[in-house]
Amino acid sequence: MIKGERLEGRRVLFISYNGMLDPLGQTQVIPYLRELAKRGVQFTLLSFERAAAFEGEGVRRREELKQELSEQGIEWHWLRYHQRPSVPATIYDVIAGIRKAKSLIRRNRIGMVHARSHIPATIALALKRSLGTKMIFDLRGLMAEEYVDAEHWRKDSFPYRITKAAERRIFQETDAVVTLTDRIWPIIREWDGLRGRDVPHEVIPCCVDLSLFKFSDEERARRRAELGLGDKFTIVYSGSLDGWYLTEKMADFFAAFRRGRPDAHLVWLTNGSHDRVKELMNSRNVVADQFSVLTVPARLVPSYLSAADAGLSFIKRCVSKLASSPTKNGEYLACGLPLIINAGIGDSDALINDWKAGALLEEFTDDEYARIGSVIETMAAQAGARESARAVAERVFDLQTVGVERYAALYERVY
């Protein structure tokens, strides 16, 4: 049998709690659906959209995306996302999601639900029990543990306990599990619900469309001229500020790095506060011509990554981050950038220890900053450094050969 042949005509309801009008939601969901649809899967997508999708420009964008998805063989439906008060709003969304999903399953004769994260999985479990549909729990992170690590919940709080109870029931009945990392699987398979079950499992990290994220000499020259970089050794950080991302530690590292490499420049690509970045830089005696802070459209991110010599990302180390796969790692590598990352985040240590794709920070000290600064300078100067980084992206994070292939294999096993 030709690989993927069994997917032809399979009808799947894909439920996402991320709004598709949020660029992050589109980036994380639609590329996979589009490629699996080419293999014959008939998708019905149900997402929860924020208020902006129902107002003014959001309505136009929503209708344009609906038409685009329809042309790609994906039928899209949406419900309004409710945020506050937290627990009642979520319960309301779950009830509304179950009602809407039931009608879609009956109308489109759907046999399987792909639930992306805990809230969609709660909906999928109700559908499995009432309609007999199979379900895949696509675990995007440890929801309860993330809220505890972020100090929003306590372990004895009602939201934590109800989330863990729902998770246990999902684990007891799901037909398959997807995790972002190898590292978390031996841990959660011993949790209540999964313990003793021989459930199909795939590890699918946050993958990258390598046709979009790639190095370009032309774009490098253009962006370096635009930013006045000349021959400066340039490090880039792409992503959010604060929260899980250790913005102050990244600023500390760069200030220390500049002491040994005075021509260094740091480019911040972020939708966060530019004033926050400027404050951090100035307080560390990094002046205006030694860093740049930009907000650029998602489609231009590869262009600015091409301008850099290394990619930076420090993330809070905690239990929940064992399940995390930072998308920026794959994007940096795809554009030929060696990584500057801290230890203990998902499977990321292996990118350095096994794949030799950059420098791994063990602790936030000046000595460690100096060590990894020296390592990354040496790596970036080596002949073929960009090709080596790109090769790791192709092996570990390729949307097609890693993400889509593994989803297709799991669909074949479950459906």
Layout of secondary structure:
Elements: E1 11-16, H1 23-38, E2 42-49, H2 56-71, E3 74-80, H3 86-108, E4 112-116, H4 118-131, E5 134-138, H5 143-149, H6 158-173, E6 176-179, H7 185-188, E7 201-203, H8 217-227, E8 234-238, H9 247-260, E9 265-269, H10 274-283, E10 291-294, H11 301-306, E11 310-313, H12 327-334, E12 339-342, H13 348-353, E13 358-361, H14 366-381, H15 385-396, H16 399-414
Structural notes for this entry:
The longest helix has 23 residues, at 86-108. This protein has 16 helices and 13 strands. It has helices at residues 23-38, 56-71, 86-108, 118-131, 143-149, 158-173, 185-188, 217-227, 247-260, 274-283, 301-306, 327-334, 348-353, 366-381, 385-396, 399-414, and strands at residues 11-16, 42-49, 74-80, 112-116, 134-138, 176-179, 201-203, 234-238, 265-269, 291-294, 310-313, 339-342, 358-361. It has a 7-stranded parallel sheet with strand order 3-2-1-4-5-6-7, with helices on both faces. Helices cover 47% and strands 15% of the residues. With 415 residues, the chain is an alpha/beta fold. It folds into 2 domains: 5-207 and 398-414, Glycogen Phosphorylase B (Rossmann fold); 217-396, Glycogen Phosphorylase B (Rossmann fold, 3-Layer(aba) Sandwich).
Q: Indicate how many domains the architecture comprises.
A: 2
The number of distinct β-strands equals: 13
Overall pLDDT: 96
What are the segments in which pLDDT stays under 50 over at least 5 consecutive residues?
A: none
Major beta-sheet overview: 7 strands, parallel
| Widest sheet: strand ordering | 3-2-1-4-5-6-7
Topology as a string of helices (H) and strands (E)? EHEHEHEHEHHEHEHEHEHEHEHEHEHHH
Report how far apart the termini are: 16 Å
- Helical coverage, percent range: 40-55%
